[in-house]
Design brief:
alpha+beta, 6 domains
Length: about 1000
């Protein structure tokens, strides 16, 4: 099984005993069709980074595409540092998931950028790791000051420090993983990509071989007086041994020429593992310390490797037969002739090289008891493969029973469900096994408790988590795991079916409810519990809870059909009692994540929502109402069930994607804030109003009901008397939910209240009938005038007029201190866009009369009050096309045609039909045909400031002509703030334009 909570790369690195602080040197690389979170680069981007690999159009050349197609399966990449130039090198090593086979039929496990010189592996380490290396090597050098070195610059500073301190020995090993493993054991290590790549062969331009030199990067650290320790693989093949020997001798000579001392690590006949990382992973860091402590000087190692080695495994039977036959012939000739003939024969005999892994002991010291046993009749292919100590411990401790591992936790099947085991208890079991598992030490020939140490116990525990890993999608399948069986849910089209089945270890439930399934349970107590809600919200709540049985299927039947609910009630209203009963049914599949945790998630802390990964019902009992619901993006993702929409993480673990699969209910004492548009409100949230009150001594005249404390405080009462009937009720509503969905329109009043509680502008929207309309258009000035009048009508604004025509506005703030009044036309667009996010502000450019005025596109009034517009729509997004709204003195309008706002004030005429427009135009002609009959007001009534309303008809004092106010000057406009843009109602041939900016002082009211 795959490791849960760890990637394949992390598992591989853990198998090489690479510490977490060094694992960032190994970068996961995705395949062409593979999706890895936070990984975008392909293997091609790493291996073929030079332009020489590519054609002029940037594409790779065909030969590379043909030869390296296997890297499309992905793998991992390990880069290196360029310690000479102090920068990260583009060169590195790539390990493909599907290696290719070379011409010799061998797997090429590692790939490097082709045609590029190889580089040593200088890995990035932290300051803490550096000090561990210094302490572990028992050196107290004069280390340069590190206090001022930034964390991001330390990897380069570290190698510079190492270069300056020759007291720190450096181990040369093969490969990036072995390098990281030695660094994890607190040894300074540098890796080479191959045994010969530390000092590769070089040729001149004419092909003449050049003198060997150390790689420039290695030469940088070859400080005089430094000890260089070689630590290459422990191979059994004689040819490989000979090749490794020559490679070490070649590089050792070059290091010694730089003033370094050389030594070699060897574990032949001590450990069977091939690489030093395997030794580290299986035997622990103590084994590495032992091998370093017992390293051989270069001279002693050369003497050891110069002795003959018996090549028993590599010598074929034919070679042995031929050799022994020649010995027999030589002995026969010697007996028949003289010793000279024997000497002549033996000199002509073919010499056979003999190799051994250890020096041959003198014959006098030969002990047959220590000789390995031979079994010529045994066939090795029939033998079972040797098991690691981790597997042996796993089979011994966990051989019986059924287990699963999920997110670094181990679970055991207890007959009803998988119960989580305590890691510390399990490690004590492993320790008890290690105390009885004796192993013969190949070096001392004594029996030891080799695995009785922390590292081995942790390795066995990690192996158990790896072996019992399971796909998270198989955990907690649809249905309910109850105390008397599993209530399975199946579907026949839109009809749900359920059946009670026996518990089995094949159902990976992590919970078991104490409630039992009783089809004939008495519903009386359940009905008392549900009486706290009116019929409409009660049905909606039951169907929402029923959806938790199989939310994935319900979402397929009703797209976005399950909303998040706000359970509103001021206390002692029954919502907590229903929540308590539901918690008994769903057990630990019910969570209580509140709104504050969602807000924290949106700020970047992802571990707060980790319990939602397997939650079927999220019902929070207490919530902070200071956060607007529509500003919590993570909650919106949970409501819609976006696939892999959440990224959650446990502490000290890497984040992982999660698909929310639960319903959400939030208990509140007062309604939360909400500022977004109608569409997002209606599609994601609903309000359940718990408006009843339960008391021990109820006052029936107030509508209070008798309280029963057992519903809240008696778990056994809920389990035995309430929950069985509640399950039956939920199953009934599951059928209705699948067929009809949830009727949210019947409880829409709570949402309206939620909107109005959030901002008073929703009350204005509902009062004046403002609604969303993609082609709707409203002048900004008109919307402001309506809102201003609404403020006056609702008491939020009082306007006091003085005899000189001036006015004073007195504003009264809303009850909510965060819900501010709109006190100017310049605030209209931004405040209403918070309610209707899709609206746009457009400036009229085509209509010569309304040119320059702004209107809002996307909303309209649902009353007979259209926006004036012009049929010519050129030059604008959308242009008004109806006749303009004209503001006439109330004395000129028949009773009932307008709304009288007071004596001497203008009244807005708003007609939508063509008949009304024609009637209005006729009255205007009659009105302006005899302007000399209109009385003039005294000069003292000439008003200052912005007193004239848009659309109001006034008189120009200098010309006695009548004009209509069509625009106020904008902020920063070239005219003063006491100037109006006016449209002439009497056209003259001398007027070059139908409109003109006129000062306040030259305008007067008409009466």
């Amino acid at each position: 099984m795959q490791t849960i909570g760890k990637t394949v790369l992390q598992t591989e690195l853990d198998a090489s005993a690479i510490s977490p602080d060094l694992q960032h040197n190994f970068i996961p690389v995705k395949g062409r069709d593979e999706a890895i979170p936070d990984v975008d680069e392909l293997a091609w981007d790493y291996l073929f980074y030079l332009q020489t690999y590519r054609k002029n159009d940037g594409g790779l050349r065909k030969k590379w595409l043909d030869n390296y197609g296997h890297i499309d399966a992905g793998g991992w990449w390990c880069p290196t540092l360029d310690i000479i130039n102090g920068e990260r090198s583009q060169w590195g090593c790539f390990k493909p998931n599907t290696p290719r086979i070379n011409r010799d039929g061998k797997l090429v496990k590692y790939e490097h950028p082709p045609k590029e010189p190889t580089q040593p592996f200088f890995l990035e380490i932290t300051k803490e790791r550096y000090w561990s290396i210094v302490i572990n090597n028992a050196v107290q050098p004069e280390v340069p000051d590190q206090a001022g070195i930034p964390e991001e610059s330390f990897p380069f500073a570290f190698w510079e420090i190492v270069r300056q301190v020759p007291e720190i020995p450096i181990i040369i090993t093969e490969g990036a993983k072995k390098t990281a493993s030695l660094l994890s054991a607190d040894y300074c290590a540098v890796g080479v990509s191959g045994i010969w790549n530390g000092a590769p062969k070089q040729k001149a331009g004419d092909g003449t071989p050049l003198e060997k030199k150390l790689n420039p990067q290695l030469e940088k650290i070859a400080t005089p007086g430094r000890e260089i320790i070689f630590c290459f693989d422990n191979d059994d093949k004689p040819k490989t041994i000979a090749s490794v020997t020559k490679a070490i001798q070649s590089m050792a000579t070059l290091f010694e020429a730089q003033g370094c001392t050389v030594s070699v690590m060897s574990w032949r006949d001590i450990y069977d593992e091939k690489g030093i990382d395997d030794v580290h992973a299986i035997h622990g860091s103590d084994a590495v310390d032992q091998l370093v402590g017992e390293r051989l000087s270069f001279d002693d190692w050369q003497k050891l490797m110069s002795k003959p080695i018996l090549k028993t495994q590599e010598t074929t039977e034919e070679e042995n037969e031929r050799y022994h036959q020649k010995l027999i012939d030589a002995e026969r000739i010697m007996r028949e002739n003289d010793p000279e003939a024997y000497t002549e024969v033996t000199s002509r005999m073919e010499k056979v090289e003999a190799f051994t892994s250890t020096p041959l002991a003198p014959v006098s010291q030969y002990d047959p008891a220590l000789a390995p046993e031979r079994n010529d009749t045994a066939e090795t292919e029939d033998l079972e493969p040797a098991l690691t100590y981790q597997e042996i411990a796993l089979r011994t401790i966990y051989g019986k029973g059924h287990y699963l591992a999920l997110h670094n936790q181990l679970y055991a099947f207890n007959g009803t469900h998988y119960e989580q085991l305590i890691p510390q208890t399990e490690k004590l079991k492993i320790k008890a096994w290690a105390e009885q598992y004796w192993v013969k030490d190949p070096k001392t020939k004594r029996r030891t408790l080799r695995y009785l140490n922390t590292r081995s116990i942790n390795a066995i525990w990690d192996w158990a988590l790896l072996s019992f890993g399971i796909n998270p999608e198989r955990v907690n399948p649809p249905g309910l795991n109850l105390t008397n069986g599993v209530l399975r849910i199946s579907w026949q089209g839109r009809i749900p079916k359920w059946q009670l089945c026996k518990h089995t270890y094949r159902d990976f439930y992590l919970y078991c409810s104490k409630v039992s399934y009783e089809p004939d349970a008495d519903p009386s107590q359940c009905n008392r519990l549900l009486a706290c809600l009116d019929p409409a919200p009660r049905t909606a709540l039951l169907r929402q809870l029923a959806a938790a049985f199989d939310l994935q299927t319900i979402r397929k039947l009703h797209s976005r059909g399950i909303k998040a609910a706000i359970a509103k009630g001021t206390g002692a209203n029954g919502k907590d009692s229903i929540r308590a009963a539901i918690s008994k049914i769903f057990c630990n599949q019910m969570t209580g994540i509140g709104l504050s945790e969602f807000q924290t998630y949106d700020k970047g802390k992802k571990y707060g929502l980790a319990p939602l990964e397997h939650s079927l019902v999220n019902w929070s009992s207490e919530n902070n109402m200071g956060t607007p619901l529509d500003r919590v993006e993570s909650l919106n993702i949970c409501v819609t069930g976006e696939e892999n929409g959440l990224w959650i993480e446990d502490k000290h673990e890497k984040a992982r994607p999660c698909t929310p699969k639960g319903i959400h209910i939030f208990n509140t004492n007062q309604l939360p804030k909400l500022k977004s548009g109608m569409e997002s409100l209606l599609s994601r949230f609903v309000v359940y109003d718990f408006n009843k009150t339960f008391k021990h001594s109820p006052n029936l005249s107030r509508g209070e009901l008798k309280a029963d404390p057992r519903f809240h405080d008696d778990p056994q009462f809920l389990i035995q008397e309430v929950c069985p009937a509640l399950i039956n009720r939920l199953l009934e509503e599951l059928i209705n939910l699948a067929n009809d969905g949830i009727d949210y329109d019947s409880i829409k009043g709570g949402l309206d209240e939620l909107q109005e509680e959030s901002t008073h502008l929703w009350a204005f929207v509902n009062d004046v009938g403002l609604e969303v309309a993609p082609e709707g258009k409203i002048w900004v000035s008109e919307l402001w005038e309506r809102l201003r009048k609404w403020y006056i009508d609702t008491g939020a604004l009082e306007v006091e007029e003085f005899e000189n025509g001036k006015t004073k506005n007195t504003w009264f703030e809303q009850a909510n201190p965060y819900d501010r009044n709109v006190k100017g036309m310049n605030q209209i667009y931004k405040r209403f866009k918070m309610l209707f996010p899709k609206i746009k502000r457009v400036r009229e450019t085509a209509d010569p009369i309304a040119k320059g005025r702004c209107y809002i596109l996307g909303i309209t009034f649902n009353t007979s009050n259209p926006l004036p517009h012009n049929s010519d729509k050129s030059g604008v997004i959308a242009s008004p096309t109806a006749p303009p709204i004209l503001t006439l003195p109330h004395s000129s309008i028949e009773k009932g045609e307008g709304e009288n706002e007071g004596s001497g004030k203008a009244t807005s005429l708003a007609k939508t039909s063509s008949e009304a427009v024609s009637h209005t135009s006729h009255k205007l002609v009659n009105f302006f045909s005899q302007p000399e009959n209109l009385p003039e007001i005294p000069e003292k009534y000439a008003r200052a400031s912005f007193k004239f309303a848009l659309g109001e008809i006034v008189q120009q004092k200098s010309s006695r002509r009548y004009v209509e106010i069509v625009e106020y000057p904008g902020i920063g406009f070239r005219f003063s703030n006491r100037t109006y843009r006016c449209r002439w109602l009497e056209s003259l041939s001398s007027d070059p334009e139908p409109t003109e900016w006129i000062n306040q002082s030259d305008l007067r009211e008409i009466d």
